[in-house]
Design a protein that fits this description.
It contains 5 helices and 4 strands. A hairpin with a 6-residue loop joins strand 2 and strand 3. It is α+β, with helices and mostly antiparallel strands and 155 residues long. Strands 2-3-1-4 form a 4-stranded antiparallel sheet.
Length: 155
Amino acid sequence: MARQYFDNLDTMILQALSTNARTPYLEIAREYGVSGAAVHQRVQRLMANNVINGSELLINPSTLGYDTCAYVGLFLRDPSQFETVVDALRKIPEVVECHFTTGQYDIFIKLYAHNNDHLLHLLQNQIQALGFARTETLISFQEVFKRQVPLNNEQ
């Protein structure tokens, strides 16, 4: 996909919405001295150009009892099974991200489990059962920070 270029207003709108996606367009408009319609039109254009891909509600996993976050590197036994394996991983609700990667892993996933016993169950009974040559698991003790990509137009 071609790189998108933004003017200052686009960048300010993106910054405001990436900080809080629920910020009313009128609030953004007042802050930057433009009309609410201008902000609305800019957001619609950014969405049409796939710069903004919706918004999401973020649930704190630990409030639902998911206290273990793990990253798992997966080694395919048969690379031709990639699509089948990805479809099967998609059916495991605890798997929240799945990446096709270069380097030592064929697939890299992020998952949440209630605890280490639940993680072990997921790995042994659901993930390894998909026919991987092997897996490597990293447990995250704490997400220190998470952020959007930088919004500057400079390289």
